[in-house]
From TrEMBL:
Membrane topology type: Peripheral membrane protein
Gene Ontology BP terms: iron ion transport
UniProt KW keywords: ATP-binding, Cell membrane, Ion transport, Iron, Iron transport, Membrane, Nucleotide-binding, Transport
The protein's name: Ferric enterobactin transport ATP-binding protein FepC
Ranges of residues in domain ABC transporter: 7-242
SUPFAM superfamilies in the record: P-loop containing nucleoside triphosphate hydrolases
Organism: Corynebacterium deserti GIMN1.010
Length: 267
């Protein structure tokens, strides 16, 4: 069966100013999959994601959406298709949760278009999905770090794009909310959205994603399903970690168990 792709990179080299971060990136994101980008710190994961979102533009090569260069799309048109949750975001001072989430509807607004029942419903659903309904009137700067992260996720949900890109979305969340968010992203994927996210936890990536992109030293090391990708050899080669791989007792997906190092007892 042929897998379709709306988002792809063709021989892309990308970085900031004159500093190159990643080279020779050639890959396609399978449509309507949950894709996780994994790799050690500094390997280019976030740069790859930002390239897909047109936050940074390639030094060479092309990023393609529906087989056309991202640069050929107007910002508002692209914002109706691709939604990005950056690694860090700063809310305007004094803004309330509802109002920040409502900014996700900006791509649909114009001088001739008033706030609609569809906009209201999108915000209401986004607040409910992220368990923020009761906090909707609170000031964002009064919330905990984890609560603020959920507000940004809600704003992304309110944008209602078919493709969602999230840069380390679980970083500021405690363990229970990490899994709540990943469950939500999986549900959205099962409902038809393409989810692309940078994750650090290999077991979470293996459990939730059906497609992995593994990066090392600014290059694509390999891609594939967790069953194809997560092996002791890859974990050692990419992360420098000796481990054993066993089926996750809950999902059956590959789970990584680091091998204990032998230490000489103190004399």
């Amino acid at each position: 069966m042929t897998t379709t792709s709306r988002l792809a990179m063709n021989n892309v080299t990308i970085g900031y100013d004159n500093h190159t971060i990643a080279r020779d990136l050639k890959l396609a994101i399978p449509d309507r999959t949950f894709t996780a980008i994994i790799g050690p710190n500094g390997c280019g994961k976030s740069t790859l994601l930002r390239g897909f979102a047109r936050v940074i533009r390639p030094q060479t090569g092309q990023v393609l959406f529906d087989e056309k260069s991202l640069d050929s799309y107007k910002p508002k048109d692209l914002a109706r298709e691709l939604g990005l949750l950056p690694q860090t975001s700063i809310a305007p001072e004094g803004i309330r949760v509802y109002d920040l989430v409502a900014r996700g509807r900006a791509p649909y607004q114009s001088l001739l278009r008033q706030w609609s029942p569809e906009d209201e419903e999108a915000v209401t659903q986004a607040l409910a999905a992220t368990n923020l309904t009761e906090l909707s009137t609170r000031l964002v700067d009064q919330l905990s770090g984890g609560q603020r992260q959920r507000v940004w996720v809600a704003m992304l949900l309110a944008q209602q794009t078919p493709i969602m890109l999230l840069d380390e979305p679980t970083t500021f969340l405690d363990i229970s909310h990490q899994f709540e968010l990943l469950d939500l992203l999986r549900d959205l994927n099962h409902a038809g959205k393409t989810v692309i996210t940078v994750l650090h936890d290999l077991n979470q990536a293996s459990r939730y994603a059906d497609h992995l992109i593994v990066m090392k030293d600014g290059h694509i090391h390999t891609t594939g399903s967790p069953q194809e990708v997560i092996t002791p050899e890859l974990v050692h080669d990419v992360f420098g970690l000796d481990c054993m791989i066993s089926p996750d007792p809950v999902t059956g997906t590959p789970a990584v168990f680091p091998l204990a190092k032998t230490h000489n007892p103190a004399v």
